[in-house]
Amino acid sequence: MIEKAKSGHPGLPIDAAPMAYVLWEKLMNFNPKDPQWLNRDRFVLSAGHGSALLYSLLYFNQYHVSIDDIKQFRQLGSLTPGHPEYGHTEGVDATTGPLAQGLGMAVGMAIAERHLANLYNRPSYKIIDHYTYALVGDGDLMEGLSHEALNIAGDKKLGKLIVLYDSNDISLDGPLSLSTEENVEERVKAAGWDYSYVKDGNDLEALEAAIKSAKRTDQPSFIEVKTIIGYGTPLAGTNKVHGAAMGPENVEKTRENYGWDLAPFEFSQDIYDIYDNYVNLKSVNYSDWKDLFDKYSYEYPAEAGQLKAKKLDTKSIETSYKPGNEIATRVASSELLQQIADKNPQFWGGAADLSSSNKTYLTDDGDFTDENPSGRNIFFGVREFGMGAAVNGINLHGGSRAFGSTFFVFSDYMKAAIRLAAIQHLPSIFIYSHDSLAVGEDGPTHEPIEQLVGLRAIPNVNVIRPADANETVAAWKVIGDTTDKPNILVTSRQKLPVLKETLNAPVDKGGYILSDSNSTTPDGILIASGSEVHLALEAQDKLNEQNFDVRVVSMPSIELFNRQSQDYKDSVLPPDVEHRVAIEMGTSFVWSQFTGLKGAIIGVDRFGASGKGPQVVDSYGFNTENIVKTFKKLWNKF
Amino acid sequence: MIEKAKSGHPGLPIDAAPMAYVLWEKLMNFNPKDPQWLNRDRFVLSAGHGSALLYSLLYFNQYHVSIDDIKQFRQLGSLTPGHPEYGHTEGVDATTGPLAQGLGMAVGMAIAERHLANLYNRPSYKIIDHYTYALVGDGDLMEGLSHEALNIAGDKKLGKLIVLYDSNDISLDGPLSLSTEENVEERVKAAGWDYSYVKDGNDLEALEAAIKSAKRTDQPSFIEVKTIIGYGTPLAGTNKVHGAAMGPENVEKTRENYGWDLAPFEFSQDIYDIYDNYVNLKSVNYSDWKDLFDKYSYEYPAEAGQLKAKKLDTKSIETSYKPGNEIATRVASSELLQQIADKNPQFWGGAADLSSSNKTYLTDDGDFTDENPSGRNIFFGVREFGMGAAVNGINLHGGSRAFGSTFFVFSDYMKAAIRLAAIQHLPSIFIYSHDSLAVGEDGPTHEPIEQLVGLRAIPNVNVIRPADANETVAAWKVIGDTTDKPNILVTSRQKLPVLKETLNAPVDKGGYILSDSNSTTPDGILIASGSEVHLALEAQDKLNEQNFDVRVVSMPSIELFNRQSQDYKDSVLPPDVEHRVAIEMGTSFVWSQFTGLKGAIIGVDRFGASGKGPQVVDSYGFNTENIVKTFKKLWNKF
User: Fold this and answer.
1) CATH topology of domain A2-15+29-286
2) What is its EC number (chains A, B) (predicted)?
3) Are B612 and A76 in contact, with CB atoms under 8 Å apart?
4) CB contact, 8 Å: B98 with chain A?
5) DSSP assignment of A419-450, as one string?
6) Per the CB < 8 Å rule, is A179 touching B142?
7) Taking a C-beta distance cutoff of 8 angstroms, is the pair A43, A28 a contact?
8) Fewest CB atoms within 10 Å of the CB: A388, B298, B420, B496?
9) H/E element holding B530?
């Protein structure tokens, strides 16, 4: 198929075929008729460029991938895209390609399995009991993320996680020795893994024995399988077979080497028969589980419901905050978190060593550890990217809903995981506190500037930056209801006044009229998000004293606002009102879509500074006086 | 000072003081009068939250940090910000705080030392010969970046890199055992490092012996120093002393424990005398080197000039490309790279295992390896973030100018390093090929969408996306002349027509009139960057046939354009011409700053797809017909 597409990576699909065969046919539990079966064994092809291998497995194992789909490999609209895509092709357990993220997500899946088994299994009801397998290549292991993922798994003793390492000594630019001399065995052992070695990647019996042995250990298991990249091809053992089609001549020679004389895309009936037999055998396990789960659902309806829940129950939450009080939105968010955790036992998460600062520790729910796998606080360590990938893996697994948290500025370290959550339509929740210059003393390295814009630019995400505690309540209701995209909740370190206008704020609409002008057509509009909203309100008062009649719009989420009807958007921002000032402590250009060529933006287009938070904020122009001045200057311009 | 600021991290500065003392006073070469001395030993406080320790060292070692500066710790405008800032406080060798990046930059500094020593030292002229030290904490080592950095250093056998690990078993959220059980010794050995252990972090003799022994190995050295966080304080050994001021009572007890009875910020004269003595001793080495370098400059003026060069010599490059030809900008960039490398021996760099795809291999210049340290191609392996930090470290070191390259979409993995280049005003060069949907078959995980916007949002960077080969030439001239910010060059995988309008294009102005309207005041403006520019030109022709007289503006760099005078900007984009269409294969909202509320943007606000590049591009609306249609629709609106 790579030859037909004239594009793709033939190396890994050939050399890793034997291990994949053993795993899928001899060992894994799955059912092609129910690809999302909660208790299936998971398989993550972390080396996603080897997608041709996965599609072959799906085809022969009767998933919804036909020989015509196979022929359409890497073509627009096909079920067989260049890298495996979760939600696009049935049987693909995770979207992979960006290296090491598959491994990171597999760790998350194994965390979910461990946790859910302990939380939801009942005597005689082992409804959660499966393995998670990942196939990784050299590139995966060079990535820093692999370090984080391996250590999270080692620390949490994820005994049912098994990684197969296609050790072929070749990467895209040439032999691996060009760039690494790492001792992989020592490294994975240092991270708390069980290690074994299969010296011939074509030895089916050795592969099966190694995996079976790995299933028996209490530690996560790492099986290094020595292979020859593109085994059986004239280019075997070289980087020429890593990332490009081989060409017809080499394919011909390869066919000769394997003694394969059928036409391309043709297979004899006995091959199909063999696979049919495997699939039939597996269907027995599935039926047994299905019966068990039906009984479980009858006996434990609440638990079964939680396992199947797509949304978080936030309806009964009636928290509201009194105007006049002052509370940081990270603290308000924390109070909501506790309540949601109480009402939704399947809701959990953790932090990258900042739970005490992010205020995301679930106080009543214990820690997720080897001794207490039903604990609901995951200590990811200072491993932001590993956390992001693991949270995605937990949410891919299903049965629970997970969040991860750190300082907003460190979203940079895990940006690629947020992207992959968005691509996969996962409802991962990322909670970021310390959202602006107001961080203060820690200075420019710790003060987010461009992060708001950078994350808003990702397709299919909600970035929500609430103005106060009540908008935070509403934000959590949006988050709870979201099923198809990640939510990024951005909270303040510092206390913010609770506004009198935000009770039951329509945060789900993204932006709304917080405080209107006195006349129907305002003189102008002040648009702000987060901690700048109360400044806009104060400026409105000051402007009113000077006979400028302006409207204040709170815009906690640009993405949600942009998804509203044009009528709604025009009602909030009437097209003929062109005197608009946007105020936000972040890169300014994102607001041009609302302020246009004529409006003004009070933003931050340089790095922050170390000093007392309020002083830093003030010195960057975030004060009532500057808003008033900016509006009046704009007013005098046209 | 932490107590006075009522904010900061007291734990590490106290427990790591002995090792810092031994290192700075007994072993390191530096001169406070010439803080940027090329051959000084480098010291990177990777655990940047321990800045109080570094400022104390700078103060006692006669750097430009006074006792008043010390008293202003973490205050706005002070020389002693919350985290150490390169370029802000003399004697700070790198801006640190975002964890593990200090370690990554130290690796880059050691790469630079190794390379420059081999390239520039001459018989009797050992002008480059120094050590690089980094002090790391537990947090640094948990970060994935530490894995990449350790392995790059191990692979390149950077024998003059010495890392001191403040092993205090505590991180912000509590004891380290909450989140890690890694065997650090095994781990660093697996990465090819020499390892030693100092069991008592207060044992000055053991510390000195360990560092001296580390200096003698051919491998990079890792010294684990067991310490008790906040040693001597009532909170010693707990996370309470990690990240917050201790409070007056605890400070009082600590003072008692240490038998310290002077007032805060007061020291007896004998302490000053001891440090004066150290500094005087060091000045001898400095003078000797200075004499040597003067002679070297006389004997090898070209080499001395290269070591001191701030800009790259691009003046003599007269490459131009013939209109009508087709060439990918990654290929054009490659041709420029070779030429710049020829003319600038101090110019070098590498790729994250994609040099053959990025086209950034310097064909005549050998590989940087243990055996050939003067080679100029660095194989970083699949370690994008490690590469970014190392490139920053090389450029921080001085004496050479380095670039790093990978696929544009993987800029995500190293975003935090780009930010740190920008904060530090480093002229790091990041070359990203495969810049858009045109990547094609590899699909959504490999097709950049939001990356252009995300990187443009960072303060103090140039993002340059040339329209064709000739704009690429001009882009390299901008890059060569830049001394105070990173440049991000974004190139196409696919061939692009060489335009007849781009010869000597003013890319330094960021945006310019590529093809003007016939009349003085155009009917409208088409603004595009990169591979969309030639589509805009074709659309201009088509629109002309239909009697719409539009101007085409090429905008390879929004940042450079925004730095021009208002007059220039208005001459390119006259304020009264409101029929504007921007065309770029990336998140659309960044163009609102030029199209305003009335204009239109043809952008990409969803993820890409796997298929043949031209098909994907076309199906997302990037074709002449859609531009023409969009302009006419806009024309009919107002």
Assistant:
1) Rossmann fold (3.40.50)
2) 2.2.1.1
3) yes
4) yes
5) HHHHHTT---EEEEE--SGGGGGG-GGGS-SS
6) no
7) yes
8) B298
9) none
Domain boundaries, chain B: 2-286, 326-497, 508-637
pLDDT exceeds 90 at position B381 = yes
CA distance B192 to B163: 13
Angle made by CA atoms B101, B102, B105, in degrees to the nearest 5: 85
**Active site (annotated) includes residue B578:** no
Domain B508-637 classification at class level:
alpha beta
pLDDT at A4: 84
| Residue of B224, B384, B532, B584 marked active site | B384
Of B85, B381, B597, nearest to A180 by CB-CB distance is B381
Three-state DSSP class for A4?
helix
Return phi, psi of residue B557, to 5°.
-145, 105
* Predicted confidence (pLDDT) per residue in A247-272, tens digit: 889 989 988 888 888 999 999 999 99
Q: State the count of interchain CB pairs (< 8 A) between A and B.
A: 359
In terms of Cβ atoms closer than 10 Å to its own Cβ (0-12, 13-18, 19+), residue A311 is middle
Amino acid identity of residue B386, one-letter, is G
Quote the pLDDT of residue B414.
Answer: 98
Per DSSP (E only), the strands in A392-517 are 401-407, 429-433, 462-464, 487-490, 495-497, 512-515
- Return the CATH superfamily for domain B2-286: Thiamin diphosphate (ThDP)-binding fold, Pyr/PP domains (3.40.50.970)
Amino acid identity at A360: T
Q: Output the six-digit token pair for B45.
A: 């406080």
Indicate the pLDDT class of residue B130, thresholds 50, 70 and 90.
very high
C-alpha–C-alpha distance, residues B47 and B39, integer Å: 24
**List A335, A384, A559, A584, catalytic entry:** A384
Tell me which amino acid residue B311 is: K
The CATH-assigned architecture of domain A507-637 is: 3-Layer(aba) Sandwich (3.40)
State pLDDT tens for residues A366-396. Answer: 999 999 999 999 999 999 999 999 999 999 9
Q: At residue A512, what is the residue type? A: Y
Classify residue B14 as exposed, middle or buried by CB count within 10 Å of its CB (0-12, 13-18, 19+). buried
b/e sequence B520-547, b meaning 16+ C-beta within 10 Å:
eebbbbbbbbbbbbbbbbbbbeebeeee
Please judge whether A5 and B605 are an interchain contact, meaning their C-beta atoms are less than 8 angstroms apart.
no
Q: Are strands A401-407 and A429-433 parallel, antiparallel or unpaired?
A: parallel
Question: Residue A197 burial (CB < 10 Å; 0-12/13-18/19+)?
Answer: middle
Side-chain half-sphere exposure of B442, counting CA atoms within 13 A: 22
Of the partner residues A96, A138, A354, the one whose CB lies closest to the CB of residue B172: A354
Classify domain B326-497 at the CATH class level: alpha beta
Q: Cβ of B443 and A97 within 8 Å?
A: yes
For A455-475, b/e burial (b = at least 16 CB within 10 A) is bbbbbbbbbbbbbbbbbbbbb
Residues of A with Cβ-Cβ distance to B357 under 8 angstroms: 172, 243
Helix or strand run (H / E) with residue A28 = none
**SS3 call for A120:** helix
pLDDT at A103 over 90: yes
- A516-541, pLDDT tens digit by residue? 999 999 999 999 999 999 999 999 99
Mutate to test the interface with B, among A445, A452, A588, A590 (most CBs of B within 10 A): A445
Q: Across the interface, do A443 and B619 touch by the CB < 8 Å criterion?
A: no
> Residue B185: which H helix or E strand, with range?
helix B184-190
Strand partners, A167: A226
Same CATH fold, A507-637 and A326-497? yes
N residues, chain B? 638
Task: With CB atoms and an 8 Å threshold, state whether B145 touches A143.
Answer: no
Question: What's the rounded Cα separation, in Å, for the pair A276 and A284?
Answer: 13
User: A4 — phi, psi (to 5°)?
Assistant: -65, -40
Beta strands B512-515 and B550-554 are: antiparallel
